Amino acid sequence: MGASSSTEQVVVSPEQREAESLAASTGALTLLHKAFNNLSPDPLTKTIPITSLKECFKLAINYEATFKPETFPTLLDNLGHSILDHFFLSNKDGLTWISFLNGYTNCCGRMPTSTSLNNLLKVFASAVSKSGATTGLQIESTDADYKINGYLLPADLLMLFWMCWVMSWSSRNRQLVKENSAFGLPDVNNLVLSAVSSCVENGAELNAWDDGVLESDRQIPVGKLHVWVLKTVPNLPDCLVQFVHSRHVKYASQQDGSEPSSSSVGDSRVIAQSTNYLLTPSRAWSISLTLRNTMRDEILKTCFAPDADEVKENLLYRSSLHGKGLSRFWSNVEGYNGPILVIISAMIEDHSWSIGALTSQGFENKETFYGTSGSLYAISPVFNHLTSSGKEKNFVYSHLHSTGYEAKPKPVGIAFGGSIGNERVFMDEDFSKLTVRHHAYDKTYQPGALFPNQGYLATEAQILEVEVWGLGGEKIKEAQNLFLKREQLFTEQRRKVDLKTFSNWEDSPEKMMMDMVSNPNAVRREER
After folding, report:
1. Residue 422 and residue 385 share a domain
2. Percent of the chain as helix, strand, coil, to the nearest 5
3. Would you say 388 and 373 are in contact if contact means Cβ atoms under 8 Å apart?
4. Staple partner for 412: which of 49, 429, 477, 519, CB 3.0–4.6 Å?
5. pTM
6. Beta carbons of 505 and 515 less than 8 angstroms apart
7. Domain extent for 379
């Protein structure tokens, strides 16, 4: 009888089989099994209590910011409830295994980016509503689907970005998320200004240095916001997906239902230390929203690294630290054969702005353009992402002084896009002058302005700072370190002088030269 009972098979309903199949397609079925078992205290009912669900997505944190909308703290308090209401539908007894799987799949499963963005906007609208505030978003729900219409104000969009930042911070630092954890909110005004200038009527004519834009009543239509997100920051909806996934990972790693230990607490000093660089946490996060590969993880170290030393790991060159000029630049980036991000801060009259260029490979000393892919960025005060147009491949140009004579010498400096003599972005040899031309000269990168009020004529600006960040990971950095050590060893060997050779006057090169001058016809035989 015991033998017969051991061979009994559990009957699985078609609904459960379909739910498990969809969850398995995400690669998280095993993780979901562990999380469900740890969240379900009663093995008989096999349900997760509503109180446990609320605790799962709870965010109780402190933050620092220069501009604080009054409703933002309450919005974060209601974020978890909004996620539960939208994805994890439970009955009075709690959440069943099938509902648990379907909730995860509806949020973290494979779907178009536009659908993920709708999920994010619906969660945001629900959290705003639960906080007691109002929003211009209008959600029209049906039995099968829902539509989102309406608009967002610049202040609403700022809170949406901050909510996504908090979810990203929580996802990467889930062991640091604890009651009263503190961190600094980033300055994402460049993203807000980018959306406003792209989505609002006559937005391109706005003054990018006007601090009153955030407090204005300009309406950003949801339809145009969709287009802007898909074009400029397509990874923004992933912040919600990563947050939900990280919370499941957190509870799947629990042992015997106990709360995971947290050895440290988030600290706002992480933000303060890394703002000394051009690649601030907010700018790094903005750029990360455009990347979908390993480069994204590397650049996010600048946002969420636990200390400043880890931030410095990817820094290859900084003009104020290593010295200005192409030779100093080259001595620090040579041998790095991986993706590289260059950020340039420049000034025209009284306004400063920053642009960036992302290359898929290291720099080479060539007389022509080279590269296989890349992107240009307008980083501040307005963010913009210009990818490859697919028409030409003049991604990078980096040329040092030539060793021999050239009838028509090539320009010495670093450039991105355009053609020789008409580069889209050109940085001179001394790193003192930056030339930016209109996109009409460039067929490699997509059209678009790299700084506010850019005209058709070439613009020359004063370079304030240059930074180069390696985004290839530890192995590529280690390979560069070995290369630089070998180069340093070769240089030291070439500089060594054997003093014994010059200790005897008869063997010295000076005497040999004098003898040749005094009697150039004298026959000298080499001793063998």
Report:
1. yes
2. 45, 20, 40
3. yes
4. 429
5. 0.84
6. no
7. 314-472
Evaluate the CA torsion angle 33, 35, 37, 40 in order and state its sign.
negative
Q: How far apart are CA 359 and CA 175, in angstroms?
A: 33
**Tens digit of each residue's pLDDT, the chain (528 residues):** 444 444 445 677 888 889 889 989 988 899 998 888 888 876 566 788 888 888 888 876 666 555 556 778 888 888 989 999 889 887 777 888 888 999 999 999 889 988 999 999 999 999 999 888 888 888 887 656 778 889 999 989 999 999 999 898 888 775 444 444 456 778 899 999 999 999 988 766 777 777 677 778 889 999 999 999 999 999 999 999 999 998 888 888 765 444 444 333 334 334 434 458 899 888 999 999 998 777 888 888 877 765 666 677 889 999 999 999 999 999 999 999 999 999 999 999 888 999 999 999 899 999 899 999 999 999 999 999 999 998 999 999 999 876 666 667 888 999 999 999 999 999 999 999 999 999 999 999 999 999 988 889 999 999 999 999 999 888 998 998 898 888 888 877 766 655 455 556 666 666 666 776 666 565 555 444
- Report if residue 523 sits inside a domain: no
Please list, in sequence order, all residues whose beta carbon lies within 8 angstroms of the beta carbon of residue 194, skipping any fewer than 6 positions away: 228, 232, 382, 383, 384
Q: Are residues 53 and 162 in the same domain?
A: yes
Question: Do the strands 351-359 and 374-380 form a parallel or antiparallel pair, or are they unpaired?
Answer: antiparallel
Q: Which of 303, 304, 297 has its CA nearest to residue 282?
A: 303
Number of domains present in the structure of the chain = 3
The residues, any chain, with a CB within 8 Å of residue 504's CB and separated by 6 or more, are none
- By the 10 Å C-beta count (0-12 exposed, 13-18 middle, 19+ buried), 379 is classed as buried
